[in-house]
């Protein structure tokens, strides 16, 4: 069957090359002659016997021809549709019979790390845990994390700038909220910083800042009682350092913004934990 199919395909390609080299008038005359010969054969021969290769080729050609031109073919339009449906059915039947790829089971260390991170950080989701594991040398999907945790019934719960703090900043992006007064902008202009107001009704233009604000609230400020300005500045300074040096970012493929690393570390050495803000934030790293 395979040889006959290849033979028929080769003949079809040869016919296509011949057709492309002929003028239009000659093709129309040849098509008319072929149709007449088919009608003569239909009067002399009964029901034709179609081979599997013939059915495959005619079904494929019928998908290219317009529906009214199907009348020029020997099989009826209903027969062509049935052949095409049979090809589709066989395709999906073969797809269902193919062996499924089995995900490799997580190693014992990875399994224990997933449980450890989930138990010690109840506010972390599946993706955050997967990002922390990448820092420790284990690349795994958040689906693997979810599978392990569900097996153990542990689903994770989902101001004014001061002198010397602005550094080499040149621009300040802000929205058009009325709380940003002219006096607010003047503080930054006096430091040589240009204030750029975002477009009207464009919340996504400030999405990076809004994302950090949400992270700061969820992971820090919603769980602390701030006693004053100095306390707030100290907490935010600690959080920003953690956010840039130890917090995995989904936009960077779960990697750290600083120091930039393109290579996943090897999973060697014991895993240690560093507590920040009195244990509110946990950082994990491999001991040297």
What does this structure look like?
- This protein is mostly helical and 288 residues long.
- The chain folds into three domains: 2-89, no CATH class; 108-158 and 208-286, no CATH class; 164-201.
- It is 50% helix and 7% strand.
- It contains ten helices and four strands.
- The strands form two sheets. The protein has a two-stranded parallel sheet with strand order 1-2. A two-stranded antiparallel ribbon has the order 3-4.
- Strand 3 and strand 4 (281-286) form a beta hairpin.
- Helix 1 packs parallel to helix 3 and helix 5 (108-120) packs across helix 6 (126-135).
- It is elongated, with a radius of gyration of 34 Å.
- The two termini are 64 Å apart.
- Mean pLDDT is 79; it is low at 159-165.
Furnish the topology, listing elements before pairings.
Blueprint: H1 2-20, H2 24-44, H3 52-62, H4 77-97, H5 108-120, H6 126-135, H7 142-151, E1 171-174, H8 182-189, E2 194-197, H9 207-219, H10 229-245, E3 271-276, E4 281-286
Parallel strand pairs: 1-2
Antiparallel strand pairs: 3-4
Helix pairs in contact: 1-3, 3-4, 5-6, 6-7
Quick tags:
single chain; 288 residues; mainly alpha; 3 domains; 4 strands; elongated
């Amino acid at each position: 069957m395979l040889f006959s199919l290849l033979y028929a395909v080769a003949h079809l390609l040869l016919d296509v090359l011949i057709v492309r080299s002929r003028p239009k008038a000659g093709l129309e005359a040849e098509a008319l002659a072929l149709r007449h010969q088919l009608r003569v054969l239909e009067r002399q021969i009964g029901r034709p016997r179609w081979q599997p290769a013939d059915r495959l080729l005619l079904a494929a050609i019928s998908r290219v021809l317009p529906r009214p031109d199907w009348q020029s073919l020997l099989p009826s339009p209903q027969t062509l549709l049935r052949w095409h449906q049979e090809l589709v059915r066989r395709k999906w039947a073969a797809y269902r019979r193919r062996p499924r790829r089995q995900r490799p089971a997580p190693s014992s260390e990875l399994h224990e790390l997933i449980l450890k991170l989930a138990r010690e950080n109840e506010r972390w989701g599946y993706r955050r845990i997967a990002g922390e594991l990448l820092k420790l040398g284990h690349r795994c999907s958040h689906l693997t994390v979810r599978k392990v945790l569900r097996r153990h019934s542990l689903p994770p719960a989902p101001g004014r700038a001061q002198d010397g703090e602005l550094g080499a900043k040149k621009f300040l992006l802000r929205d058009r909220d009325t709380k940003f007064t002219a006096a607010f902008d003047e503080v930054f202009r006096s430091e040589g910083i240009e204030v750029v107001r975002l477009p009207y009704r464009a919340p996504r233009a400030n999405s990076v800042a809004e994302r950090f604000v949400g992270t700061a609230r969820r992971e820090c400020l919603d769980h602390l009682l701030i006693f004053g300005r100095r306390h707030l500045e100290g907490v935010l300074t600690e959080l920003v350092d953690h956010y840039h040096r130890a917090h995995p970012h989904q936009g960077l493929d779960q990697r750290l913004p600083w120091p930039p690393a393109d290579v996943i570390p090897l999973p060697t050495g014991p895993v240690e934990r560093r507590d920040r803000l009195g244990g509110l934030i946990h950082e994990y790293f491999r001991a040297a």
